[in-house]
Amino acid sequence: MSPGDSVSQQTVTPVAVMTGIREFKRELGLLDSTMIVIGSMIGSGIFIVSADIARTVGSGGYLLLVWIITGIMTIIGALSYGELAGMMPHAGGQYVYLRESYNPLVGFLYGWTLFLVIQTGTIAAVAVAFAKFTSVLIPAFGEKNILLTIGNKSVSAAQLLAVISIFVLTYINLRGLRGGKIVQDIFTITKTAALLGLVLLGILLGRNASAIAVNFQNFWSACWTHIAAGKIVSVEYISGMTLAAAIGVAMVGSLFSSDSWNNITFTAGEVINPKKNIPLSLALGTGTVITLYLLANVAYILMLPVVGNPDASDVFGRGIQYATSDRVGVAAATMIFGAPAALIMALFIMVSTFGCNNGLILAGARVYYAMAKDALFFKKVGTLNSKSVPGVALIVQAVWASMLCFSGTYSDLLDYVIFAVLIFYILTIAGIFILRRKRPDAERPYKAFGYPVIPAMYILAATAICIDLLIFKPDYTWPGLVIVLLGIPVYFIWRKFSSRPSMP
C-alpha cells in the first residue's frame, strides 16, 4: 500500500467507525485486479464472433488481421488508461476520468449510457450466451423452448436461465467483496486454462490438412457474405475501400470480445495500492487475453475452413462461417474429439461466461455508486450495505440487465454496446491530452505509452470505426447514439430536481 493509502486508512477509517459511515474495503491485490481484467474480457465472444467475422471478410488472412488490429487498439487503450488510473484512483474509474477531463455532464452521459446500454447490455448479452451454451448440455434451456407468449413477444427458457444467472451472481456480490473476488479468481483461472487448452490442442493435435490447404490457398481473398432474415442474399468479392469498410464492420465482434478491460478502474476504491496495481493489471490482463485470442483464431483456421456451406451436414462442411449457432469453439473441439468434446467445451464456455458476468456485475455497480455520490443517480444507490458493497446499485443493475435479456438477440445487444463503448473510449483517451494541459503538475505515477502519437492513433482509428458502423450498421448504431444524446436533457432535469448540488 502506498503512503497515501496508509494515511487515508489511518485518518478516515476511525472517523467512519465513530459516525457509522461505511467505507469500501481495500481487498483487491494485483492478482485479483488482473483476474478482473482477464475475467471480464474472456466471456463467450472468442468462441462465437469469429463466425460473423468470417462471413464479413471471408478469408483466413483477414480474419487474423481483424483480431490483430483489435489487439493493438485494446492494448493501446489499456496503456493509455493507466495514466488516468494512476492520477485518479477513485471508485467509478472511467466516469471520474470523464468528469474531471471535461465536466459533470460528460461524466453523467457515460454513466447514463453505461447503465442503459454498455454495462447492463453486456451483462445481458453474456448471460444469454451462457444460456445458449447451457442448452448444448441441457436442450430444455434452448432458445426455441418458448415458455410464455404475450402478443408478439415470447419468453424462452434460455432467457429465463440468463436472468437467473444474473441474480445468482448479484446475490454473491451482495454478500461482500471477498465472495465476488473468490468467484472471479476461480472462474478466471479455469476458463483461461480452457482457452489455452483449446489453442494447444488445435495447433498441436487438431490440424486438418484439407482446412489448411483451402484456407492458405485463399488466405487474402476477401469476400463479404450479406445475410438478411437468416438467408444469404449475396456474396461480394471485395477490395480497396469496401474491404476497409468490411474490416471495420467485422471488428464489432472482436472489439466486443476484447472489451470490459476498463472495469478494473471502476473498483479503484477497493484496490490495494491502486496507483501501481491498476495500471499494471491493465497491461498484464489485456496482453494475456489478446495473445490467447490471436492464438485461438490461428487454431480455428488450422482445424476448419473459413468459408463454409450453411446447408452442409457436418462440422467441417459448415466451416467457421456457418458453425452451428455460431459456436466456433464447439465446432473446433468437435474436429478433435467428436461429439463428447463439444459437450466438454460447452461446459468450459459456460464457466467462462459465468465468470465474465461476475466481473461485470461486481465492477459496474461501483460507477452508479460514484454517480449517486455526485447527486447524479438515486440517493440510495450511493450507499454501502453492511458488507461494505453498493447493495442497492447491484440490485438496480440486475433488474435492468434482466429486462434487457428480453429485448433482443445476442448480436443486437452487441451492436448497441460496442458503438457506445467506442464513443467514450475516444473521449476518455482524448481526456489525457486535456488533463496534460489543465493539470500539468498533477502526480502521474504512470504516463501513457507513446504519448502523444500512440494515443492519437487510437483516437483516429476508433473514430474511423464509429463512422464505418454508422454507415453500415445504422439499425443499431444510430439508436445507440440517440441513447447517449438523450442523456443531455435527463442531466439538466436531474440537476434541477436534485436535492443536493452536483460535484464542481
In words, what does this structure look like?
This protein has a single domain, classed as Amino acid/polyamine transporter I. 71% of the residues lie in helices and 4% in strands. The protein has helices at 3-19, 30-41, 45-48, 50-57, 60-87, 94-101, 104-137, 157-174, 177-205, 209-217, 240-257, 263-266, 274-303, 315-318, 328-337, 339-373, 391-405, 410-438, 453-472, 474-497; strands at 146-150, 153-156, 223-228, 231-237. Strands 1-2 form a two-stranded antiparallel sheet. A two-stranded antiparallel ribbon has the order 3-4. Helix 8 packs across helix 9 (177-205).
Question: Which features does this protein show?
Answer:
single chain, 504 residues, mainly alpha, Amino acid/polyamine transporter I, disordered C terminus
Q: Which helices and strands, and how do they pair?
A:
Elements: H1 3-19, H2 30-41, H3 45-48, H4 50-57, H5 60-87, H6 94-101, H7 104-137, E1 146-150, E2 153-156, H8 157-174, H9 177-205, H10 209-217, E3 223-228, E4 231-237, H11 240-257, H12 263-266, H13 274-303, H14 315-318, H15 328-337, H16 339-373, H17 391-405, H18 410-438, H19 453-472, H20 474-497
Antiparallel strand pairs: 1-2, 3-4
Helix pairs in contact: 2-9, 2-13, 2-16, 4-5, 4-11, 5-11, 5-13, 5-18, 5-19, 6-7, 6-18, 7-8, 7-16, 7-17, 7-18, 7-20, 8-9, 8-16, 8-17, 9-13, 9-15, 9-16, 11-18, 11-19, 15-16, 16-17, 18-19, 18-20, 19-20
